[in-house]
Amino acid sequence: MNRKAVAISAMLVLGAYGETNRAFAISFPRSTTSFRGGSVYRFRAGLDGGGDFSVNRYAGDFSIGRMWDFDSFASVTFGLGQDDYRFSGRDDEPWNNINNYRLGLFVRKGVGEHWTLFAAPSVRNYAQAGVGIASDEITGAFFGGATYRFNDRLSLGPALGIVEQLEDSVGYFPALLVNWEVTERLSIETGSGLAATAGPGLAAIYALDDHWKIGLAGRYEKKRFRLDDHGVAPRGVGEDRNVPIHATLAYFLYPRGFVSLMLGYDFNGSLGLFAADGDKIEEIDYGSAVSAGIYFSFKL
C-alpha cells in the first residue's frame, strides 16, 4: 500500500493526517503548489464575572514546494487569517478583529533507510486590525525533529518547538511524533493544523473507504497578539488559551485534496490582557463552548 499523509483538521484549531490507498506514478524532481483554508466558528462562551464572547476564525495558506525524491522535500508557505471576536455583556471590549500573517519554511530529508529529519522555521505577525506590521509585532518560531521508521506501519521520534511570544519569555515544548498504522483502516498520528500556533496535535483517523475518513483530534492552543493604540490596554497584548477537541468527517478527492467538516468542543479557556510592558492587567477564565467549521486542501 502506498501511503500519503495529508492534513485534515481545521482553524484555530487542531491537525491530523490522512492517507490514500492508491498507488500512482511520480517522476522526480517535481514542483508542488497547494492551497488550504477554512473557517471555524466558536459559539458563545460565558466569561467569569459576567458577559460572553464568540469567535469566527478564517485562515488560508499557499505553498510552493520542490521534491527531489520521496525522502527530500522543501517548501515555502505564506498564510493569512483573521480572528473575529465579538464580546457582549461587558462594559468594555478588550479587542475585536485580530489579523495574522505567516511565512514559513519546511524541509524534510531522509537519512539512511530508517531516519527522517525535518525542520520548520517561521515568522508571524498577530495584531489587532489597524495596527499594521512592525518589528515589535513579528515573532519567530521553530519546530524540528526526527522520526525513526521501525517498519511499514510505525514511525516514532522526538521533536522540539521553540516559540517567541509577545512581551513574554520564549516558550519551549517537547513533542513525540507518531505515525502508527494500527490496522489497515485505523491510524494514530501527529500533525499541525491550519494556522497552528503551539505545537502538534494528536489524532486518531479511521478510513471508512477509499474516500471517506472520520477522525478525533486534540491539542493545546495559545495565541498572543498586539493591540491597537485605543481601548483599555493601548499597544498592549491580548491572549487566548484553550484546549480544543474536534471530530472530523473528511472526503478525499484523490489525488488532488480533500474537504473536511469538523465539530469541536473547546474547554479550559482563558483570556488575558497585558500592558505594553508585559504587566498583567486582567485574566478571565471562560466556559466551554462548541465549535464548528470546514477545512479544505488542494494541490494546484
Written account of the structure:
This protein is 0% helix and 66% strand. The protein has no helices and 18 strands. The chain has a 14-stranded antiparallel barrel with strand order 3-4-5-6-7-8-9-10-11-12-13-15-16-18. It has a two-stranded antiparallel ribbon with strand order 1-2. By secondary structure, it is mainly β. It is globular and about 60 Å long.
Apparent shape: globular
Order of helices and strands: EEEEEEEEEEEEEEEEEE
Instruction: Write down the overall mean pLDDT.
Output: 87
Q: Rg, please?
A: 20 Å
The count of DSSP E runs of length 2 or more, i.e. the number of strands, is 18
- Write out the strand line-up for the largest beta sheet, numbering strands in chain order: 3-4-5-6-7-8-9-10-11-12-13-15-16-18
Please work out how many helical segments DSSP would assign. 0
End-to-end Cα distance? 25 Å
| Structural class category | mainly beta
Largest sheet geometry? 14 strands, antiparallel, barrel
Helical percentage = under 10%
| Percentage of residues in DSSP E strands | over 45%
Low-pLDDT stretches are 1-23
